[in-house]
Amino acid sequence: MHILIINMNNFIQQMKPTFGKEEADACYNYMNSSSYITEYKQTRLLEKIICDYINCKYCFMVNNGTISLSLALIAIDVKPGDEIIVPNLTMIATPNSVKFIGAKPILVDVDENTLNIDIDQVEKYITDKTKAIMHVSLNARCNDIIKLKNICEKHKLYLIEDAAQSIGSFYKNKHIGTFGDIGSFSFSTPKLISCGQGGCIVTNNDVLADKIRMVKDFGRMKSGTENFITFGINSKITDLQAVIGIEQMKKLPTRVKRKKEMWNLYYNNLKDIVKMIKPNDDGFIPWFIDIYTNKRDELFDYLKSKNIGTRKVYKPINDEIIYKNMYNGYYPISKKYSYTGLWLPSHIELVNDEIEYICNCIKEFFNQ
Length: 368
Ligand SMILES: *Cc1c(COP(=O)(O)O)cnc(C)c1O
Fold this sequence. Notes:
Elements: H1 21-33, H2 41-54, E1 58-62, H3 67-75, E2 83-87, H4 93-100, E3 104-108, H5 119-122, E4 130-136, H6 145-154, E5 158-162, E6 170-171, E7 174-175, E8 182-186, E9 199-203, H7 206-215, H8 239-270, E10 289-292, H9 296-305, E11 311-312, H10 332-340, E12 341-344, H11 352-367
Parallel strand pairs: 2-3, 2-4, 4-5, 5-8
Antiparallel strand pairs: 1-9, 6-7, 8-9, 10-12, 11-12
The protein binds pyridoxal-5'-phosphate.
């Protein structure tokens, strides 16, 4: 019999960033070689590395993956009162980025196969105030975004991708985040690669790229000059974070591979016990290992008592207090998956023995 060599006194975290000697050395070397700290050559290098990895023409690092969405909206000239269509099941940052600039997030339910915005329902929410659709590749899954893009083209709307959770994931061999007019990524602490904080905006569109470059730098027309021709704010990152990001990007391919192994191990152990959503494309792999069960809250408590950290899936946006009174739509799928969803430990340092321990605890729970 396989003996578990886990020290059960160690709490297994649901998620944590993983930085090593490489990042530490990079920071040390950077501090010994340059005094800028603010974004400069290392940030440009990281942007180039991201462009090459995702196969995109432009990448702009910014201070986080929320402001990146607001900046994307400013770049496409969204004005107060405009409407932006977003999914009802996403991180709060998605609708907040819309609200932040005075526009209105319009919530649409998600589809059951990917938990992405339900493309078949989108058109009935389009009005003459609609300016863009924000697609969220939730948990790095992606639905038929090409169909969504066609809908956007038909109605002359921009497609913005909140791909915050999707670095390393491809749909039909194209990196998620590069289908829309503008894509956005986050490098905050729980994401697959991290700079502590940070995000980026990507595009293949020359005109939008010029606009984004300005809006993340006070609206400055050209770096080093004092001409402001458009509205902008300071959303720059630092080179100190960029050197960390460069080391993290080197680790990305290994992490993607390990994530797939982790998913398969969890999936093979748990697929007959709880609901799991199998990826519909080999190119992506859930960022968090997500399971769905009507006993979600009890399982959360049980696993905690076994020293296992989990996290409940986001509430539907229309159930969050700040959005509650804005909507009276019907969102059955967001509701169902939100209130039954649990994210299991998913950080990259988890070892197979720990995953097996977690799966055994879950089996034990359902056998009680
Ligand atoms: C993490 C996340 C964000 C926000 O990114 P930050 O860098 O934390 O501001 C936005 N949208 C989604 C879907 C996310 O997961």
